[in-house]
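For the sake of transparency, this paper describes our internal protein records without simplification. An entry from our holdings is shown next, in its original layout:
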Amino acid sequence: MGRTDEAARHIAASPAEVYAALLGREALEAWLPPAGMRGRIERWNPRPGGGFRMVLTYLDATGAPGKSGDATDVVDVGFAALVPSELVVQRAVFESGDPAFAGTMTMSWRLSAADGGTDVTVVAEDVPPGIDQADHEEGITSSLANLAEWVEARG
């Protein structure tokens, strides 16, 4: 059993609006990459058993070696569970020749209606040991901030 990382944020939008952003291709490309990265989805199949392939590129490659290549992280994500307005469970596998990034990381995005919006909790289980915990939690927090900005701007 690997490490577990998590982060949470309150978003001033309904669970349905947040859920839609978790399953929208354009939305994911915009908000999922953490600060300092951009993302591009190459394959898209938003259903249980489906998933997507995302290429994440560091905006400044200096001191940011990618997991998959120079300044890039490539991740194949499968949708393990989709419960409308409540839960998205993803299984993520990084393309990497480095065994420190091997394995399947499970990311659970839980949505709970609260105080005129939605509490979003992200739990990452079996995080590969090559991913620094502090950096990973910072990245999840950054993605949550991007998600909030994306959804709240459209509400």
Helices lie at 15-22, 25-31, 133-154. The chain has one domain: 3-154. The radius of gyration is 15 Å. Residues 3-154 form a domain with the Alpha-D-Glucose-1,6-Bisphosphate; Chain A, domain 4 fold (CATH 3.30.530.20).
